[in-house]
């Protein structure tokens, strides 16, 4: 996975003192195979000698010294070959070849050089050496910690310095997070009613790990109604876990063997990248969309079957084992809503190539443009491949209660239901929360007459406000009718148009106490795009947009100064 | 891990028609290395030929046929060698050697034979072959689903047929699950008070992934007080996730690389086995305790440093990379409470060998024998290795609210706090539940004056009732003063004393609508032990013990009939 391979190359602070250095040339698999053969010859020779030795005790001791070190090196090299072969390296891929002396006990001989995953090897070497690179975390622990810190550093800082209209007017405003804060008043009122506070023995005890039956039944009823399913959905096809990313994590794990891959339409929700880096290690192969309009693409960032087909074939040529396709509809971060025909084309494509489809419909409750119809895959009379179509949904976006940590899976595939359900053991939701969710989804009168119309009109108003401000600033953006955010084009403010400059602009917003989400987080291949959340309260939006304008003004001043310096020859 | 390796050998239903068979002889690593050399020679020869071919398009096509298959076989073999080397195979271990023809395109030549993980290879082979073993789940998905079904089948059946004193008197009573149902009345009353139903914006939105600051602060205060910590514990050292197994899952992942191991005192809580089978794949190496009293062991199932040391050295000789030790104190399933001296010895042992210690103290609130003091590791003036001592705790047992799905980690190790905290992204608890937990832990007056004394006296009473019934039946058991269960010796009812007979007895209880937990689930090495939960309401306990007696009576009748048949020569 892109994210994973990035982190593999991350320098490890603890390695500094090792005096190891990476090798310059990148020989192909052939050289690695030859080197491996030499090593195996040498190893088998030593093994023969060792087998001749009679004293078992002595052998054991030696084993833990030189033989163990040789084994470590051999394991390392074999691992490289396995990786290489699995990545289809023979055709084109090249990698850094570690050159490791079999005699690594120091003194003369060849200097050990750094392989791709440095501390893995050092762990396998003798204790004295490992001590130099001692770290309490495993390699993956180090990667996760680094990835978490880099992904959430600013979010954590924001948590400690939130803007408040009275108490902290200089605090940070977060338009980088996709949260719906428009109807907290309605939700607070509804969740405070007495029916919510029911408690019984079952709610306090261990639940069915797939979710309490009462909630799974209500989810099935809710989705039947709001997705316009042709027939009543089956509660036995529902699994309830602590958030949609928990569902994604469990689902990809039970569908993929290590090293398997999923295609994902890019730019895409950054949470899937982070999720994949935690437990599962599934590779997300990006199907990049372009902002440019061409003959084939009638609108920016258009998804076509051609693009899917091309990405799949390229991946397969590289030897990737592609197990499926991830779709997000309505799309995050673009706000696109797929037409019924397009959706069917994507599903037909997946069926043609025996691909699973994970379709994340968490934004279905965020369609604020009533002229654009949303089509859930659950509304289809007949799915091309029902056993390989898996729907994710939750209440975080439509209902604006991300703090409930609720995500659900709907799939006709009984094997998948059972295997994902097992993960409720680790991703369970408290019984009292399950009860509240059930009551909320049950209350159609409140949803249809109070919540939905109010939420829609507030979303429209907030969207109008932000887009008007963007228009005034002459900033291009996508307007697609759904989502809690706007995909904004700030390329004009990057010079040169690089991801480094995008990051600088991101930091300039942050200096103005405004969090936005840069396109890089969504793996967008073009620098300069930002996702800007609009579903916040009017006053906060106003302050945020003032800060936004201010940051862009500063960006312009910075250019002027830079140009002045150039002209003055500084 | 034991559990894992069991499931590796599980027959895959879909494989039946393949006509593959496992090979009889078990040649050691030497033969594998030689075979590998042959394969590499052959492979590199073919690779050379291929590189000479000019037409790229043609090469690509060929690549996806014969070369790809060769690669699959090579990957398989290399994987075996890596496993073998990592398992320290050169000293003693032997394994099944797959004999695979390089020319696997059918027709003549050697017949492909089944390696250890059959369907993994088949996935790598050509599509036409894979189709025969097609399954929507990955190998690990298949294993997880099978493990879930076998582990929770009876629990799920129980969920649908729970005993109820009025509504379902013929329903199932579950004394196999460790739940505290003695004070649901008190909890329901406390959780229904108005302070519990508070809602604010922050509770409905994304939290700090390590847990809301207010809850982490309260957990630190609570543990400082009830664990008698020498100084105020730091909320920054607390991580809150959806249950103790979620903590265990994240913790072992960030401490272990794939294939690393932890020692675990056995018998042990079956949830750790299941957790390890879901995401992490850490090997749990059992340190078996014995029921027999010997010179060294003054009581049954005694843990000594000698046993730890022996298990560690044996594991290391086998080439295992042991990263730490899991302790459960008070113990599940034994009910043991470690003395301060013993605890210190175990911690010193771990420090001596650079081992992490994961200590699960979830049962600290279940000490019902007031004469036995409980010592949390958090109470120690100075821990031998504070950076490698990680405490797990939750409210499921002491407070009897397993349905809250709340688990917490306390560790001085900032790296571990950060890395485990990242998993809040997948194992978050709803904000409203976090609020309720905080209020509960905060209410010391209610805890000290109402909850704790009532809970303790009800536990004592229930424990007395069950042990009296056991005494009447002349059934031996351990009485250790903590836990929600009694470790019961039913060896007398097994003939022969095997795990098969244990399973039959388990089913006999089930036929009498009584769920108990057999020792096998705790990896106990001696058949005949059962864990029997006593923390249930008096009426249910009475009915349950009647069923228990009835099942044992039936077991005796079954023997008599069997012996009669023997005598009559049937």
UniProtKB/TrEMBL annotation, chains A, B:
Region (Disordered) residue spans: 1-26
GO BP field: amino acid metabolic process
Domain spans labelled Aminotransferase class I/classII large: 175-536
Superkingdom of this protein's organism: Eukaryota
GO molecular function, one term: transaminase activity
Entry keywords, A to Z: Pyridoxal phosphate
Protein name: 1-aminocyclopropane-1-carboxylate synthase homolog (inactive) like
Gene of this entry: ACCSL
